[in-house]
Amino acid sequence: MGQQxxxxxxxxxxxxxxxxxxxxxRCQNAGFDRHGVFKVAVSGGSLPNTLAKALxxxxxxxxxxxxxxxxWKVFFADERAVPLDHEDSNYMLLKEELLDKxxxxxxxxxxxxxxxxxMDDVQEMADQYQNALMGSFAxxxxxxxxxxxxxxxxxxxxxxxxSLFPNHELLRESDSWVAAIEDxxxxxxKRITLTLPVVTHxxxxxxxxxxxxxxxxxxxxxxxxEGRSLPCGLVNDGGAERVSWFTDHDAVEGVGFPRRxxx
Length: 263
Description:
The chain has helices spanning about 15-35, 45-55, 90-95, 120-135, 195-200, 215-225, 230-240, 250; strands at about 5-10, 40, 70-75, 80, 110, 150-155, 180, 190-195, 205-210, 245-250. By secondary structure, it is of the alpha/beta class. The strands form two sheets. It has a seven-stranded parallel beta sheet with strand order 1-10-9-6-2-3-5. A three-stranded antiparallel beta sheet has the order 4-8-7.
């Protein structure tokens, strides 16, 4: 067995957000050093709110604590086949929680939403989103997989992440970068999602999971063999030490997996 993921637990979300800021900015600056931009994929749920708390906080003005959104390329780890102003849209959630609140002096990121003209054909929507990735990460025939600088993910109460659900056939998809799903067990049923190989090949992968409602599933993912077959567990296995979990004490009470003291 290779190296394990990193588990960080914080007293509350405010303290979590401070460390998440440090972590994201390290990833940002490493991306800038690598290729002049920061390529990041984000999920929905409670993540955009926590991300806003982290990234819009007052900077100490040092180079290591400065967010430069003008060099961010933001993609969605998954998205629902709904209009961009729909309450189920991950784009809308990120826009309301973070994008609309970014001060001018921090720059504006390049954001890649879905093309909503394909809402009636989610496979075509997935293909078009894959084309958008190719435009940023080079053609599919020249690189096996797009490699994000960072993927910021959530964890569902069933252990799903992105729109990759337990025991779903999409967990075995290995050719596509982006896949369509028309039978999501969680509404809305029609979605697109990054595939598991894309997620696990990120340079850094971070889960944010907070609250008592996550306690049982985190115990399963982190402490049991069965949990390793859940989507989040598969990301842990594939990403190993490149994966970091940002949690609060409520979410990991009773979890035996060893915690790290600091970043």
